[in-house]
Amino acid sequence: MAAPHVTVVAHLRASQHVVAVVASAHHRFLLRDDTIVGCEHREPSVRDQMAFGAMALMATVAFLDPKPRDALCLGLGAGTVPHFLRASGIRADVVEMCATVDELRTLLSPAATTAANHCC
What we know:
Elements: E1 7-13, E2 18-23, E3 27-32, E4 35-41, H1 56-60, E5 70-74, H2 80-87, E6 91-95, H3 99-108, H4 110-117
Parallel strand pairs: 5-6
Antiparallel strand pairs: 1-2, 2-3, 3-4
């Protein structure tokens, strides 16, 4: 099996790290150095689905009783979690410590832009 083709969409170098948006045929990833901090499907029809099983947090919202009215997301990543929470009727504020993640998020997805535009 051949390795998938990956394209660097954009990258920024900060004093101690590099943040990049890379795209494969099916996904876009937001990377901080060697760590994936966000991922989304590129196909619009499945963009709201979890890209990783570790994002099961989003799936648990349906089982919370009482349902929370507010949430604080520590780290924006791709913006998928706050976008999902807001779509579920939960007010979600976001705190992102890394300015370069915040700067490149707009290249990743509309969900990240929407999530950050409602940030505290």
